[in-house]
Design brief:
globular, binds D-glutamic acid, Rossmann fold, alpha/beta, four-stranded parallel β-sheet, 11 helices, six-stranded parallel β-sheet
Length: 259
């Protein structure tokens, strides 16, 4: 079984990519919706939440912990990942691999405020690509729009355009460095134009997980995804059904403080 976590619905964009790669694997996705959005929280608190999410999945004997939250990866860049039985997959590593493969040099990063404040993306990209120029922009308005299901029409289009207007012209690539943003990919495409490559780190992320599962097993299950939230279960069920296109998703409730 493969475990994934995020603060909320954004993680579903990673679940989708992992499912494409591993159709028969069993997936367990936890959305910490009692604490969404993560992007406005302080590093100490984000570190605590990340450790709790990782420990919860690790205690369920998953074969891999696929982090579906860039903000948690940014905090782990400073605080380190906890010790676990399962290998942890970090989205910033996946994004960096994608940028290297694309030979990108002028790079935009759109992320949560906490991720941008950490500087983790800029540091890791420059370490991997010596002559990279990186511009990081925070987009605090976007996660609440996705969580509320307001993803079509003028409101999200204008919000995305305002963020992209803060980036310089002539970029090679823009990283959608929050897993909620691929839900708004169409608006990013409209604002950035066809010449700028949109990088969704989840694609390489899923490829890396699939490589581990190929080597070590764990991909032969019943192809079931369990979606767990500590937020509003009925709303979560509706959003999972619509984003994942599943008529009756297997949704479970987890008490906020239960471990
Ligand atoms: N989806 C998460 C990320 O990738 C966190 C968004 C939030 O809760 O602010 O950063």
């Amino acid at each position: 079984m493969i475990g994934l976590f995020d603060s909320g619905l954004g993680g579903l964009t990673v679940v989708r990519r992992v499912r494409e790669r591993l159709p028969r694997a069993d997936l367990l996705f936890f959305a910490d919706q009692a604490h969404v959005p993560y992007g406005e929280r302080a590093p100490d608190e984000l570190d605590r939440l990340m450790r709790s999410n990782v420990a919860w999945l690790d205690a369920r004997n998953v074969d891999a912990i696929v982090v579906a939250c860039n903000t948690s990866c940014a905090v782990a860049d400073a605080y380190g990942w906890p010790q676990t039985h399962a290998e942890i997959f970090d989205l910033i590593d996946s994004a960096t691999i994608a940028l290297q493969r694309a030979s990108a040099r002028r790079i935009g990063v759109v992320a949560t405020s906490a991720t941008v404040r950490s500087g983790a993306y800029g540091r890791r990209i420059r370490n991997a690509i010596a002559d990279a120029e990186v511009w990081e922009v925070a987009a605090p308005a976007l996660v609440p729009l996705v969580e509320a299901g307001r993803i079509t029409g003028d409101e999200p289009r204008v919000a995305v355009a305002e963020v992209c207007a803060q980036l310089p012209d002539d970029l090679d690539a823009v990283v959608l460095a929050c897993t909620h943003y691929p839900v708004l990919a169409e608006h990013f495409g409209g604002a950035l134009g066809v010449d700028v490559l949109q990088i969704d780190p989840a694609l390489i992320h899923a490829e890396r997980v699939a490589a581990l599962i190929d080597r070590e097993g764990g991909g032969e299950g019943s192809g079931t995804t369990r979606y767990v939230t500590n937020g509003d279960v009925a709303l979560f069920r509706r959003n999972v059904a619509s984003i994942m296109g599943e008529a009756q998703p297997l949704v479970e409730e987890r008490a906020t403080l239960a471990f």
